[in-house]
Amino acid sequence: MAELVGKQKVVVVGAGPVGALAALYAAKRGDNVEVYEFRADLRDPSTTPLNFTKSINLALSERGINSMRLTNCEGLLDAVLAETIPMHGRMIHGRGKHGDLYEEPQSYDAQGQCIRAVDRAVLNKRLLDHLEQMPNVTLKFNHKLTGADFNRNLAWFEQRKIAKTDHAQNPTNNTSVKSEPDRPKEIAVSFDFLIGADGAHSASRYHMMKFARVTYQQEYIDTLWCEFHIKPRSSDGPFAISPNHLHIWPGGSLMFIAIPSLDGSFTCTLFAPESFFVSLKASAPAEFVSSFSRNFPGVCPELISPEELQKQFTENPHLPLISIKCTPHHYKSSMVILGDAAHAMVPFYGQGMNAGLEDVRVLFDFLDSYDVYSHPPKLPNARKERRESALNAYTSQRTPDAAAINDLALRNYEEMRSGVKSPVYRIRKWLEDSINIYFPSLGWSTQYSRVSFENQRYSEVEKAVARQGRIILSAIGLGFVGIIGFMALTTFKRLYRGR
Question: How far apart are CA 107 and CA 297, in angstroms?
Answer without folding.
Answer: 22
